Amino acid sequence: MPLIPEEPQIHESAQGPRATPASGRTAPTPRPVPGPRPAAPPRPGRPGPLRPAPPVQRTPRDTATAKPGPSGPAAAAATATATPPQIQLIPASAEGALDAAEEAVDLLLESGRAPGEVLVITTGEPHPWAAHELTFGEASYWAQHDAGDDVFYTDAAVASRAVSRPVVVVAVNGGPDTAAATALPLAHARAGALLIVCGDPQQINSVLGAGV
Question: How far apart are CA 29 and CA 20, in angstroms?
Answer without folding.
Answer: 9
